[in-house]
# Entry
Amino acid sequence: MDFDILKNLVKPSDTKILLLVMDGLGGLPTDAQDFTELEYAKTPNLDKLAKEGICGLHDPVAPGITPGSGPAHLSIFGYDPLRYQVGRGVLSALGINFDLKDGDVASRGNFCTVDSEGKVTDRRAGRIPTEKCAELCDKLKDIKLSDAEFFIQPVKEYRFLTVFRGEGLFGELADTDPQKTGRLPLPPRALKPDAEKTAKVVAEFIEKAKEKLKGESPANMVLMRGFSRRPDWPLFPEVFGLKAAAVAAYPMYKGVAKLVGMEVLGTGESLDDEIATLKKHWNDYDFFYFHVKKIDSAGEDGNYDLKVKLIEELDEKLPEILKLNPDVVVVTGDHSTPAYISNHGWHPVPTLVWSKYCRRDRVAEFGERACMNGGLGPMFPATNIMPIALANGLRIDKFGA
# Structure
């Protein structure tokens, strides 16, 4: 929906909306198992919500397109991901409160493992701990570049942030991550002529980082992703008329919430920590974005059983969250991460909307095949989620006379 039209329809209300994002929720059956992770998991509380609400499968970007976490979240937040595009670097920078300046180019990096031929054997360097990441960042901090300033900071586990500052830098660069093992890292490549200088600056950084990481194990090389400069966009609270807060433990998701104008609440690492934060601030906001990350990580690692377990753990905690009495509950994932393919997938994502104003469908459990028959549709645009949530919260006025 056009934001200008929506802003004119939004009206005040005292209702509260909870958006629960189970990162990487969607899955696939495996050779050994005829159920997705969500279908196999025992989820009586999610099933109850599904039975009392309305369900469907949302498409984060477009049919057949595999989304990154950034565009997938923006889509759920109501931003057309094809129009509002930003690289993961900016999201990482905002997530760790880096002070981005106008013209800065940010990138999210991975420490990775390469073999003697320079081919990637592990894109995440065994998920090294954050402490090791910080140690490696310190080792790279004294790199000097010939035509730009350079900043590096740890983010989490194997992830780090790089920021390049100087005249004439642009973010239109292709990733250097080949996305598969057994391949050489890709050279930085300008996607527009204006970014040729930036590509040379990044290439110089990568070459010097490679030299400094020689002898390190398992993190002996870097991969660069999501080059971008900070955009100027309409803000979520203004568009949707909501005092909005984000509860997220991982920096990237804090970053995407901050980018659209949500207030990011300080919280700990565990699900219990996040629930405690939600309870503490429940009376202070109209809208809460509540993010659960580790389900996605299990999918990326190809760990079907762990993904099932983490979904079940969330379901066990759900009654504690629902005791807060939200008026509208949306449960979904930003994208699918089937353990069967150990990566993000293009598959539509299970979604449920619950409120006392829902027109219930016949879905009685929360799973991919059940949601395929739900009233929201088998492949509805994720950008529809926020208007539907607002309507169920009695926050949208009549359109037209």
Observations:
- Residues 58 and 379 are 5 Å apart (CA to CA).
- The two ends are 19 Å apart (CA to CA).
